[in-house]
Amino acid sequence: MHAHISKINYFHTNYMEKDQHQFISMIYNIRNSYFLENGPYLINDNLIVYLNDEKKQVCVHNINSSTTGDGVYIDGRIYITRSSSICQLDLRTKNLIQLERLTSNSRCSSIAAMENFLLFIDKRDILWKMDVKTQEVEVLGFEQCYFIFTFLDKVLLECRINDEKVVILGQFKNGRITELNRLSGELGGKTYWSDNHGVSLLRPANQIIDMNTCALMQQNDKITRDHQFFHKVLGATYFPDFSEQLSKQFLKHITRQQRADEYIQSLNQPHEKKILFLQLDIEENSKEFHKVNYKFIHIYRQNCQKLQSNYQLQKTLLQMCVELFECKGIDCFE
């Protein structure tokens, strides 16, 4: 498939604001962790942390060993990679265990989350999925995979096919990935070391990939992206110039997805997070109200039409009665 030009707004001004926190050293994200207590969460060496209001790192959990890439949150658990191992941290019990059946390819982005599935690239570079509810594991049909990123319902894979590196973009639905686009090249610079929530850099073209549209942006990227910046929703990103736009899309998606998450809903959410779930409920209830209201109005109009028809019928019958009475009166007179 040929690359299409993305329609996403391209802008790179005002991202070096005074209150924009820049990380000195590389840090990993825990994807989908915004609604966790004080989230989003980050991984700094062997510590799971969050940034407080003063942008100081506060430790949430010590995982005792350095990780090799981003972690992901699904259904009350955080999944992380340690070399070729995948571990699970239960946030209720704080127990950290190694998942014996699962392996990682040891690269910096080898796991991801979609719906109730953990996606992972094993040590043979094969892409798999595990249903976190049933623990069932199934291969997804992509081999020689190096990296995986996800955004909304989209998946990005860097693979090697016929001795050529390619970036595959697809949609994840009902446990399957449908390929939508394929780009020649590889993920470039430092930007693929951690998740950037919806954008990636393609080399050698030096163009930005918009994961939401599965397309390349028209302009070549002119920014040196060698440091991460903090965003209050997305966490650490090499693309702060896109954060505000991407965070709005991400929030809608994650709010809808985690509304049924029992662990998330058991937390005492601050007002700014609680209101997101409330707004979603109001929005959906409003749609139902409009459906009911429209149905009521439709029935009311039908009844009005029937009443109008009955009125016309009554008027016609009355007129006929008057005419008959007049005729009878004339006959009697004659």
UniProtKB/TrEMBL annotation:
SUPFAM superfamilies: YWTD domain
UniProt superkingdom: Eukaryota
Protein name: Uncharacterized protein
The organism of origin for this protein: Trepomonas sp. PC1
